[in-house]
């Protein structure tokens, strides 16, 4: 790879960005986006020629890294042959993508409704669940992320995201497992699982089971902190859903397509939902694509009755060609196995070793290539390294961590008092070790802000 080094071009890109691009989730005057000149594999570089190992996979979506030549070629071929065609027609790349996805989804999730990304997949899954059951309410977990559109953001269990001008009609939130911060109620995973299931069933009893259309959960909550649920939790939720005729929706937008070392995180737990949302890794985000995988029973609801929903770009041929190529690359190159094997043999021991040496690391948790370090001021009290929703001076410890990581050549994922280790799934052993070494330096900067 040949990093382009033209600082003047970078300055022009940056100036136009600052003048005209309105960025997501940001105070526009307070941000300073890096101008990116190019990317390849697990790396990207700026116009000064500085190269970063991407520990974020973008927003946890470039599961096969940047610019994979086979996927780039497939997009080019599809663009030359049939760039676009409306969703009501059968198109080769669309039907082949649906077939490849349905082959990999668990159970009888065999019909695929395509969307443009994750949030609209969630919107449609909830619409399907409400129409299928004829019930209004949806239960979703605090400490979750389901997307930035109206319904999806209300389902998201993070008050920082809730728009102040809208309510959350029909959404009831509950507490899913999070042992590290549930310790006043539970000391073991078994106790935490029992606590969370009992709480969920009590919530359902008070809301009235016959009013609840769906329970939506991220199989492994991602943005909120990569809390791998304890054994038995998701199976328990499945049982509760069956007991009350509630549709079980698993959101695999982040956890799906190999992130956890399985094609879908549901496979880790042997659980089959009624609806499963996906996006991101389905085509490594090369062209926007998402969707809902639908069970036989729910598909049947819309067998003779029209499904009242659709999108102009549903199953866009270019995006689907990228999905077909990505899934084939993942299968041919053993990308899922790489995430599982190197996750277990390199990433987990590497992160645990860092935790032993750095007092700022409160907990290491994760699976596959899906890891979080929760940073704390004090390991005994578990006080977070920065307060909830900190900015400015209050966020200085995490800012120091991020600056040191970048200095050491990695781009870190930072959210509140956490950093996530979520590189592309085909990152090699030497690159992973390079990432761990850079984190070592960055954690030293975080340690300076602890009490230990
Ligand atoms: N659901 C989950 C679990 C996610 O992690 C995300 C995005 O991070 C979404 C939904 C929303 O996806 P999108 O940003 O493609 O709309």
Automatic annotation (TrEMBL):
<dbReference type="GO" id="GO:0030170">
    <property type="term" value="F:pyridoxal phosphate binding"/>
</dbReference>
<dbReference type="InterPro" id="IPR005814">
    <property type="entry name" value="Aminotrans_3"/>
</dbReference>
<comment type="similarity">
    <text>Belongs to the class-III pyridoxal-phosphate-dependent aminotransferase family.</text>
</comment>
<dbReference type="GO" id="GO:0008483">
    <property type="term" value="F:transaminase activity"/>
</dbReference>
<protein>
    <submittedName>
        <fullName>Aspartate aminotransferase family protein</fullName>
    </submittedName>
</protein>
<dbReference type="InterPro" id="IPR015424">
    <property type="entry name" value="PyrdxlP-dep_Trfase"/>
</dbReference>
<dbReference type="InterPro" id="IPR015421">
    <property type="entry name" value="PyrdxlP-dep_Trfase_major"/>
</dbReference>
<dbReference type="InterPro" id="IPR049704">
    <property type="entry name" value="Aminotrans_3_PPA_site"/>
</dbReference>
<dbReference type="GO" id="GO:0005829">
    <property type="term" value="C:cytosol"/>
</dbReference>
<keyword id="KW-0032">Aminotransferase</keyword>
<keyword id="KW-0663">Pyridoxal phosphate</keyword>
<dbReference type="Pfam" id="PF00202">
    <property type="entry name" value="Aminotran_3"/>
</dbReference>
<dbReference type="InterPro" id="IPR015422">
    <property type="entry name" value="PyrdxlP-dep_Trfase_small"/>
</dbReference>
<keyword id="KW-0808">Transferase</keyword>
């Amino acid at each position: 790879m040949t990093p382009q080094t033209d600082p003047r071009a970078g300055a022009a890109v940056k100036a136009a960005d600052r003048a005209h691009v309105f960025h997501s989730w940001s105070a526009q005057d307070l941000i300073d986006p890096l101008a990116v000149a190019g990317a390849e594999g697990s790396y990207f570089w700026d116009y000064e020629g500085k190269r970063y190992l991407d520990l974020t996979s973008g927003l946890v979506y470039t599961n096969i890294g940047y610019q994979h030549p086979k996927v780039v070629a497939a997009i080019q071929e599809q663009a030359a042959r049939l760039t676009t065609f409306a969703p009501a027609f059968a198109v080769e790349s669309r039907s082949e993508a649906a077939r490849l996805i349905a082959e990999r989804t668990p159970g009888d999730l065999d019909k695929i409704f395509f969307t443009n990304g994750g949030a609209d997949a969630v919107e449609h899954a909830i619409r399907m669940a409400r129409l299928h059951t004829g019930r209004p309410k949806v239960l979703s977990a605090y400490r979750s992320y389901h997307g930035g559109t109206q319904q999806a953001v209300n389902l998201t269990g993070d008050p920082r995201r809730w728009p102040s001008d809208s309510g959350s009609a029909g959404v009831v939130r509950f507490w899913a497992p999070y042992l590290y911060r549930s310790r006043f109620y539970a000391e073991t995973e078994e106790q935490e699982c029992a606590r969370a299931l009992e709480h969920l069933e009590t919530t359902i009893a008070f809301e009235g089971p016959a009013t609840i259309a769906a329970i939506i959960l991220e199989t492994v909550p991602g943005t909120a902190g990569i809390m791998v649920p304890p054994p038995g939790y998701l199976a328990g939720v499945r049982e509760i859903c069956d007991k009350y005729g509630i549709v079980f929706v698993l959101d695999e937008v982040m956890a799906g397509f190999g992130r956890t070392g399985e094609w879908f995180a549901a496979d880790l737990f042997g659980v089959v939902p009624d609806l499963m949302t996906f996006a991101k890794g389905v085509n490594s985000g090369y062209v926007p694509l998402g969707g809902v995988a639908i069970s036989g029973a729910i598909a049947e609801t819309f067998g003779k009755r029209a499904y009242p929903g659709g999108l102009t770009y549903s199953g866009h041929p270019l995006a689907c060609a990228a999905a077909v190529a990505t899934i084939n690359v993942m299968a041919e190159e053993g990308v899922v196995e790489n995430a599982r094997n190197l996750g277990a043999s390199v990433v987990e021991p590497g992160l645990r070793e860092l935790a032993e040496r750095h007092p700022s690391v409160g907990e290491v948790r994760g699976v596959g290539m899906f890891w979080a370090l929760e940073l704390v001021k004090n390991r005994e009290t578990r006080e977070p390294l920065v307060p909830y929703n900190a900015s400015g001076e209050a966020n200085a410890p995490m800012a120091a961590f991020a600056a040191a990581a970048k200095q050491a050549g990695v781009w870190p994922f930072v959210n509140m008092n956490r950093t996530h280790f979520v590189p592309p799934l085909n990152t090699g052993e030497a690159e992973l070790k390079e990432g761990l070494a850079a984190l070592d330096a960055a954690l030293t900067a975080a340690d300076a802000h602890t009490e230990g």
